[in-house]
Every structure is written in structure tokens, then in C-alpha cells.
Amino acid sequence: MTAGKVSWQDGHRERLREKFLTAKLVDYELMELLLSYAIPRRDVRPLARELLQRYGGIYQVLVAPIDELTKFSGMGKSAATYIKVMHSLMLRGYNGVLKQQPVFFEVDQLMDYCRLLVAGKTIEEFHILYLDKTFRLLADDLHSSGTVDWAAVYPKEILKRVLDLGARVVIMLHNHPTPNMSFSNDDIELTRTLQAILHTIDVELYDHLLVSGNIVYSAKNMFLLLNSNKSRGDASVAAVAMDD
Hints:
It is a single chain. This protein is of the alpha+beta class. The protein has eleven helices and five strands, in the order αααααααββαβαββαα. Helix 6 (about 75-100) runs antiparallel to helix 7 (about 105-120). It is elongated and about 65 Å long. It starts with a helix and ends with a helix.
């Protein structure tokens, strides 16, 4: 009976692998296939469905803290670590691509990278992406971690880092732990203040990206950035803000 059970599981997983190779897996099947390599002797379909139901999507499962993952029945530390390894591999892969080509060349890859960085986090994080003059990634810094609805931004530190790296372009990135929440008024004011400050040293703020749930909001696409003339006009105000 045990042999029959194992044989059934092997056949099922072989079918999953074949479906994967033809890009026909739905999300829970993809999660099941991933878990089958970490937990080879169990039926992991219930666990795969439970993870997706709890977190709402594959991105959220990948970015979930390891101590949360290990609370699920059947999810040991080794399996949870396997999921986090996959997360790290994807992050490093996207990071490498963004260093090799302009970030606007494949916008979807930039958006996926942002989701992998901060989607599913329970507190706000602010990242600053520093780019060269060809819009290739130089560095991605975790600028600050805050609370469930706030994270600090320090313009002086950003300016110093810009000068150290020789960056010519900056992208702001942060998250809202509550899903489907767009930019707040404070977010917009902060974006425009930093944009004006960067303008004083001839550095472009390319965008401010906000991840909330599975959505990535773009301040640029939402016309929330200052135009170049307005940036020049606000430069003196921004300089005062920087000194505060």
C-alpha cells in the first residue's frame, strides 16, 4: 500500500513537471511542484493551497518571513529555507539584469524586482535604487525600516550616497503593508521634495514606486512628479527641507 501511494505521488509529480515544461501550471500547482522538491515524501497539495490562501499569491509566499512559514503544518525549517533560497535567487537574477541593461528596457522586470523586495512586508521599508547615466542599476540600498504606516527618508544620506556612487538617476521605492493603498499626500510631498533636492546637483528622480499588495504604483505614470521647471522653482525650498 505504501509502495502504491509512493508510485501515485511519483506519477502525479511527473505530470506536474511535464505541465511546467509546457507552461500550463496554475499557481497552486506551481507552488506544489516547488514544495515537492523540498518535501519529497508527502502530498504537498494541501500545504500549497493553504500557503496561497493565507498569503494571497506566490510573491507573498516567497517574501514571507521564515518564522511564519515554519508555523504551517508540514513545513519544516528545511522546506521554509528552500522557499527563501528561491526568493533570493530570483532577487539576484533580477538585480543582475537591471545592472546589465537600462531599467526601462524591460519595465515588467523592474516591477517584479520591486514586488520581490517589499511585497508582503508587515512594516514599511524605503529602498533607494541608484542608477548610472545609462539608467543601469549601480546599487539598491535599504534606506530605512519603519512601522506599519511610516518609514523615514533622509535626503542628506541619499545625496551622500549619490556622490559616492557617481549616480545620475535615482528611483525611490517603498511599500504599504495594507493592500491596494496608493500614494498618500505625505508620500507625494516627500517625492517632490527629494526630486527638487536632487535637481540641485543635476540628478534625476526617475520615479517613485510603491508596492501595495500585488500592485506597483508609479508616481511618474500617475503624473505626481514635478516637471523640470517646477523642480527648479522648488530647489530653494527643498534645500531648506534638507537642512531640517
